[in-house]
Amino acid sequence: MIHVVAVITAKPGQRALILEAYRANRPAVLAEKGCIEYTATIDAAGMPASRASFGADTFVVVEKWETLADLQAHAAAPHMAAYGAKVKDWTESRLIHVLEPA
C-alpha cells in the first residue's frame, strides 16, 4: 500500500475555493483503480494553535493507494489535470509526501 500526505497551501483567503474544486473532483478520484482513501483534512476545531498547526490557508489530503502504479495513473488522469488547471491561480504551494509502510 502507498500512503500520500499532500499539504496544499492556498493563497490568502482562497482555501474554500480550492476545497470546493477538490470536492467536485473527489468522486472521480474515488472511482480510480486502486484508490482506497482520498480525504481532505484541516486543523481540528477547538485545538489551540501551535507551531504544528497548518492554519487557515492550508489543508491536507490523506490518500491511500493499493500500488505505486495506481498512484502514478492517478497523477496522470485527465480529471487531475483539469483540477490542477482550475486551482492553479488559487494555490500558493503543494508538498506531496509519498510513503510506504515501514
TrEMBL record:
Alphabetized Pfam families for the sequence: ABM
Domain of life: Bacteria
Domain ABM: 2-99
Keyword terms of this UniProt record: Monooxygenase, Oxidoreductase
Coiled-coil segments: none
A single GO molecular function term of this UniProt record: monooxygenase activity
Gene3D superfamilies hit by this protein: 3.30.70.100
Protein name: Antibiotic biosynthesis monooxygenase family protein
